[in-house]
Amino acid sequence: MKFAEKAQQLQPSLTLVISAKARDLQQRGKDVCSLSTGEPDFPTPSFICRAAEEAMKAGHTRYGSAAGEPCLQEAIANKLHQDNKLTYSPDEIMVSNGAKQALYTLFQVLLDPGDEVIIPAPYWLSYPPMVHLAGGRSVIVPTRQDRNHQLGAAALAAAITPRTRLLVLNSPTNPTGTVYPEQALAELASVLRQHPHVAVVSDEIYEYILYGQSRHVSFGVVAPDLAERTFVVNGFSKSWAMTGWRLGYLAGPQPVLHKAVALQSQSTSNVCSFVQYGGLAALRGSRECVHTMVAAFARRRQVVLQALGSMQHVHGLAPQGAFYAFLNIAATNLSSVVFCERLLAEAGVAIVPGAAFGDDRAVRLSFATDAITLKRGLKRLQEFLAGL
Ligand SMILES: Cc1ncc(COP(=O)(O)O)c(C=O)c1O
What is the model's pLDDT at position 13? Predict the structure, then answer.
C-alpha cells in the first residue's frame, strides 16, 4: 500500500512509544521505574468527575456545538481574563480534544505548503510533525543552556524570512522547564512588530506548574497590540490531572477561529459533551486541588535536584516550571537514544531521549511520578552513570 507523502515520515510520539515499552517490560515481569511520561500520576479531582457524571445523567450525551459548549467557552473567557489578563470573547474560543488538537487545527488553517514555522529547540516533540502534516516547514532555532534555554530576540530576528508564518512559544517549556520572564517576551514581541506577516502561538499548558519565584506571563500581556496575530493554546491535562479526558482550547482572533471551528466541525464534530462539563467544574471550582498537586511536584523536584548533585557525567538546570528535568549527557559520549536504551535494558529505568526534542546531547526525566518510583529510579540512574 502506498502512503500519502506526508505520512511517509510520520512516526508515533516517542514519549508514548517509550512508556508503552516500559509498560510492556513491566507486564513481562521486569521491574521498571518509568520516569518517561508527561502526565500527573494523580487521579482527576473527584468533584470534576462528579460534574461529568451529572452532565451525562442530565442528557449531555448528544452532538454539541463544534466550537464547544457555550457555558465552557464563557468560563474559559473568564479564566483568561482573571488569570492571564487577556481579553477574549466566548466566540474567540474553541474547545478542542486537548491542547494537541488545538495546535494541530491551528497549523492546518494557517499554513500553506512551504510556509515556515519557527520552533525554539528543545521543543515539545509533536510540534514539527504537526507542522509537517499541515504542509509547513519547521525552522528549528537552538537555544543554549547557559541562556536558560530561552529564545533570544536576535536569534528570532535571524530566523525570520518572507515565508515565516508562525512562531511557536511554550512557557513553561516542555522539556526544559524554562519559564520566560516578561522582559524576554517583550523583546520577542519587539521583533514581531517589525514583521507583520508573522503570527505567534503561545502554548501555556503548564502555566500553573511553577516553582520558587517563577511567574507565568502570557505572551498577549506584553503585546496587546499584536492580538490580531496572537493565539493562545491551553488545556486541562496537566493542571487538573485530566490527560485522558482530552480537553483543551484555542483562543485567538475571530476570522481564524471561525476557520478552526469549521475544520473541527468537518473532522471531529465536537469535543465529548459531558467531558466539557468536567472542564467547566474545574474552572469554576477551587484551585486547591491544583495547588496540592503542584506542591507534590515541587517536593519531587527537590528530590531530583538533590540526587543530580551527586551524579557523574550529567548536569542540567533546575526546572522553573512543568515537571521535567532536562539533563545534558554530553560527557557520556553516548547518543541520547543509546543512553536511554542502555538505561532501560541495564538498569530498568525509562526516560526519553533528547533527540525527540531536538537535542541529542540530553535526556528528559519526568518527576510526575510517585516519590518511591522516583527515588528508586534516581538511585538506579546514579549507579548506571557510575558504571559507565
Ligand atoms: C508543551 C505541550 N503542549 C501540549 C501538550 C498536549 O496536551 P493535551 O493533553 O492537552 O493535548 C503537551 C502534552 O504533553 C505538552 O507538553
Answer: 76
C-alpha of residue 385 to centroid of ligand 1, in Å: 30
* Ligand 1 center–CA 38 separation, angstroms: 8
Mutate to test the pocket of ligand 1, among 19, 37, 100, 119 (most ligand atoms within 8 A of CB): 100
Ligand 1-lining residues (CB < 6 angstroms): 38, 98-100, 124, 170, 174, 203, 205, 235, 237, 243, 248
Q: Of 97, 351, 146, which Cα lies nearest the Cα of 249?
A: 97
What topology is assigned to 5-44+288-382 in CATH?
Answer: Aspartate Aminotransferase, domain 1 (3.90.1150)
| pLDDT, position 9 | 83
Instruction: Indicate if the pLDDT at residue 129 is higher than 80.
Output: yes
Q: Where are the domains of the chain?
A: 5-44+288-382, 62-284
Q: What is the pTM of this model?
A: 0.96
For residue 240, report the distance from its CA to the centre of ligand 1, in Å. Answer: 13
Number of Cβ atoms within 10 Å of the Cβ of 65: 19
- Give residue 92's pLDDT: 98
Distance CA 326, CA 125 (A): 14
Quick one: pLDDT at residue 38? Answer: 87
Q: What is the mean pLDDT of the chain?
A: 96
pLDDT tens per residue, range 208-256: 999 999 999 999 999 999 999 999 999 999 999 999 999 999 999 999 9
Query: Closest ligand 1 atom to the C-alpha of 203?
Result: 3
Flag whether pLDDT at 17 surpasses 80. Answer: no
Ligand 1 centroid from CA 354, angstroms: 17
Rounded Cα–Cα distance for residues 228 and 236 (Å): 25
CATH code for the part of the protein at 62-284: 3.40.640.10
